[in-house]
Amino acid sequence: MANLLRWMRRTSGSPGTTAPISEDVQPPAEYPDVSAAISAITTKEYLEMSARFFGAGTHRDLRNVKLASIYLRDDEFFSRCLEVLQQVESEKIQKLINDQAAKRVGGSFAEFGIFQGAWIERLFHMTESAGLSDRHIYGFDSFKGLSKPHETFDVAFWKEGMYAASRADVEKNLKVAERPRIKLIEGFFDESLERDDAKTVGKIAFARIDCDIYEPAKRCLEFLSSRLEHGAILVFDDWTHDYSVGEGRAFAEWVVTVPHLRFKFIFLGPWDHLHLRVLHRDQDDIF
Ligand SMILES: C[S@@+](CC[C@H](N)C(=O)[O-])C[C@H]1O[C@@H](n2cnc3c(N)ncnc32)[C@H](O)[C@@H]1O
Q1: Exposure string for 177-192, b = 16+ CB within 10 A, e = fewer
Q2: How far apart are the first and last CA of the chain?
Q3: By CB atoms within 10 Å of each CB, which of 100, 124, 190, 220 scores lowest?
Q4: 128 part of a folded domain
Q5: Domain count within the chain
Q6: What phi and psi, each to the nearest 5 degrees, are found at residue 57?
């Protein structure tokens, strides 16, 4: 979220704390040692880790387009900039989904952390436009806001209960009654992802992680381990550009547990939306 970016710019340093990594998984040989990734402090170290994880660096210093410093907030050109950037990002994602449809990448669409449903709404229209109106779109959320952030592995910007939106309001926003392919799965992830309605979710073509904080992000990634299709798109809405905290940490710890998958950088949106291609190592690269 843009608020997080503003908060991060005002603060300096990173926690850099490491946690023990399970020893029974064998990460692919090209991956860096995960403890090293989590402790990467300098930009050079961070870029090197990213290149090894998904083939490209996502430069910390370019992580935000400095909209606020170009136009004042009450200047109409400020909101026009936001609209244009949003439009360009949406067109790029539409193209990615069209390409998936052309290459017959199967599976559902899913977002983990949906708030009032803005991205689910976009995915609904994008899938319609790509001729994928037979695909389920899953929205996973507590409808009670964020769970408790981790004391060390999340930055202090995040607070328990942030971004709460009631299920009734979200159902209304998304017209769920008229759009049965939108499926809402309610609950905090540590409970909801264990339930039968979640366990029956099959292959996933497109997954957005937008629950903001480390522990839920990691839980969602674990849920996706065996579900991500060859050619899937995996999006981190709040890429931290730092493997010691938040979604960055969740990814660095998870990626070594999925040696059957590999990842390719697609693009980084202006709000730090990191888009990665997911490929199965035992299949030919179709992208
Ligand atoms: C930033 S908002 C998502 C914004 C949304 N993607 C959009 O399109 O506007 C973060 C969401 O994550 C959800 N969330 C955070 N932690 C969660 C958890 N542990 N279990 C379930 N939902 C969680 C919150 O309820 C909130 O709706």
Answers
A1: eeeebbbbbbbbbeeb
A2: 29
A3: 190
A4: yes
A5: 1
A6: -85, 150
Q: Has residue 287 been placed in a domain?
A: no
Strands 228-236, 261-268: pairing kind: unpaired
- Here the CATH number for the domain that contains residue 255 is 3.40.50.150
Q: Is residue 30 part of a domain?
A: yes
The rounded Å distance from CA 221 to ligand 1 centre is 14
Q: Which residues surround ligand 1 with Cβ inside 6 Å?
A: 1, 111, 113-116, 118-119, 141-142, 145-147, 163, 188-189, 210-212, 216
Q: Compute the distance from residue 287 Cα to the ligand 1 centre, in Å.
A: 30
From 146, 192, 238, mutation site for ligand 1 pocket: most ligand atoms within 8 A of C-beta: 146
Query: Looking at the domain assignment, is residue 285 inside a domain?
Result: no
How do residues 248-276 score in pLDDT, each as one tens digit?
Answer: 999 999 999 999 999 999 999 888 899 99
In the predicted model, what is the mean pLDDT of the chain? 88
Residues 6+ apart with CB under 8 A from 44: none
Q: In terms of residue numbers, what domain contains 11?
A: 2-15+26-280
